[in-house]
Design a protein that fits this description.
The protein is of the alpha/beta class. It has 2 domains: 273 residues, 3-Layer(aba) Sandwich (Aldehyde Dehydrogenase, Chain A, domain 1); 185 residues, 3-Layer(aba) Sandwich (Aldehyde Dehydrogenase, Chain A, domain 2), CATH 3.40.309.10. 37% of the residues lie in helices and 23% in strands. The chain has a 7-stranded mixed sheet, sandwiched between helices. The protein has a 6-stranded mixed sheet with strand order 10-9-8-11-12-23, with helices on both faces. Strands 1-5-4 form a 3-stranded mixed sheet, covered by helices on one side. The termini are far apart.
Length: 497
């Protein structure tokens, strides 16, 4: 039975002002409606921003350790409901159940991590050049944040944004993807249950064009955190820059795995399969380019093709499934169109290449895992983000040629190298133009205790997640405080000679 979900504004679950709704559909079975969802508009956004604005004046004054206790309770509640929420993620987004559960686990991890930051929002205390004076820096909240998230990680990515925003003392208006609204709503229900005060979190469902763009431009919003396509992210960054808003955009990728001639090919093949076809290739960190040394090129293709052709495509809830559906009909058409582009460009198709046949696939958006070989770096399939179960194998002469090919991209999110030579790893980690470098591991699998993000068209503004340079730099600003208790005028930076 389909869920009926609502917007959350000022602590109340409400319908859209228009009364309009839309449906969230299971991509593995389009006859199953996951939820009926409010189709919101500008009036709903206005109410949500007003609510967040009012709540900010109260929430910012709650001591960070107390805020952390609420986040800790949220982590506990999400953990207790992990199985139910993981199954929902699989039904609504399509990823296999182990990944759906992993999606939820990442939200749990982020909640615990940011809860701990409530007692660790440290600044600096430094000595003054003058007597009877002290100097310190502290983190302070910024205000109201618009959080706009995609469909491929419907609990993890919202958690990446919500929990650091809240621990920093900000309030939020959250606009989840219209393709996975029910998963997002269930996450928010648990966070509210943990004791977040009314108005601190507001949830508004709707389309990106109608709700997302208006929310980002709203004068009551102080900052925007966006995850999605490069085209939308660049447009939002331009808009927010002109309005003097904080902005963070985590965007696309065309991520390479380099396989050297001294690599353990069995390990490299396993990594390439997981990197390219995990989450059906619907990750910004997916390995869509496999760059292989010429000495092992043919053998790698043989082993890689054998492994990929054994993958089982199907409903993510079935234990036998390795690769689930793509998210919807439009995405399916986009991926199939790129496969045709690859054929026309002269790339050699060695497996996959079409929608799945058979009765079990009739109701969903299933595409065969697809490998192109003899791909030239200038081909569109080697340069443009496909966001589906398609990868390209490219031949390299040596390490420097492989790095050159890897860096010849407008994206720079994640990268990987398989080699047993420590000197190769040192050169690769220095020279690869990406925000993340993996050694003897695929391009997916970032951990939450370090910053996440890319360069070039993969990322703009502050990074996500934890660690130095992570999300707290997005959701807090530095204030420097000088206190003079000498009782007289002292002049710093004045020549005393």
């Amino acid at each position: 039975m389909a869920d009926t979900v609502k917007n959350l504004i000022d602590g109340k679950w409400v319908d859209a002002v228009s009364g309009k709704t839309f449906k969230s559909i299971n991509p593995a079975n389009t006859e199953e409606v996951i939820g009926v969802v409010p189709l919101s508009g500008r009036k709903d956004v206005d109410s949500a921003v007003d609510s967040a604005r009012r709540a900010f004046e109260r929430w910012r004054l709650i001591p960070p350790p107390r805020r952390g206790e609420i986040l800790f309770r949220a982590a506990e509640l999400i953990s207790k409901n992990k199985n139910e929420l993981g199954r929902l993620v699989t039904r609504e987004m399509g990823k296999v159940l182990s990944e759906g559960l992993g999606d939820v686990q990442e939200a749990i991890d982020m909640a615990y991590y940011m809860a701990g930051e409530g007692r660790r929002l440290s600044g600096e205390t430094v000595p003054s050049e003058l007597p009877d004076k002290d100097c310190k820096s502290v983190r302070v909240p910024i205000g109201v944040f618009a959080l706009i998230t995609p469909w491929n990680f419907p609990t993890a990515i919202p958690a990446w944004k919500i929990f650091p925003a809240l621990i920093g003392g900000n309030t939020v208006v959250f606009k989840p993807s219209s393709y996975t609204p029910v998963s997002a709503t269930k996450l928010i229900e648990l966070i509210v249950q943990a004791g977040v005060p009314d108005g601190v979190i507001n949830l508004v469902h709707g389309t990106g064009d109608e709700v997302g763009e208006y929310l980002a431009r709203h004068p009551g919003v102080d900052g925007v955190s966006f995850t999605g396509s490069s085209a939308v992210g660049e447009r939002l960054a331009t808009t927010c820059g002109g309005l003097n808003k904080e902005i963070s955009c985590e965007m696309g990728g065309k991520n390479p795995i380099i396989v050297m001639d001294d690599a353990r090919l069995d390990l490299a093949v396993h990594g390439a399969v997981w990197g390219a076809f995990g989450t059906t290739g619907q990750r910004c960190t997916a390995a869509s380019r496999i760059i292989v040394h010429k000495n092992v090129y043919s053998r790698f293709i043989e082993l890689f093709t054998e492994a990929v052709t054994s993958l089982k495509v199907g409903d993510g809830l079935l234990p036998s499934t390795d690769v689930g559906p793509v998210i919807n009909k439009a995405q399916m058409k986009k991926v199939l169109d790129y496969i045709e582009i690859g054929k026309k460009e002269g790339a050699v198709l060695v497996c996959g290449g079409k929608a799945c046949d058979g009765k079990e696939y009739e109701k969903g958006f299933f595409i065969e895992p697809t490998i192109f070989v003899d791909v030239r770096p200038e081909m569109r399939i080697a340069r443009e983000e496909i966001f589906g179960p398609v990868t390209c194998v490219i031949k390299a002469e040596d390490l420097h040629d492989a790095i050159r090919i890897a860096n010849d991209s407008e994206y720079g999110l994640s990268s990987s190298i398989y080699t047993q030579d420590v000197n190769n790893t040192a050169i690769a980690e220095r020279e690869l133009e990406a925000g993340i470098v993996y050694i003897n591991a695929p391009t997916i699998g970032a951990e939450i205790q370090l910053p996440f993000g890319g360069i070039k068209k993969s990322g703009l503004g502050h990074r996500e997640a934890g660690g130095r340079g992570g999300a707290l730099d997005m959701y807090t600003r530095w204030k420097v405080i000088y206190r003079d208790f000498s009782g007289k005028l002292q002049k710093a930076q004045i020549d005393k000679d």
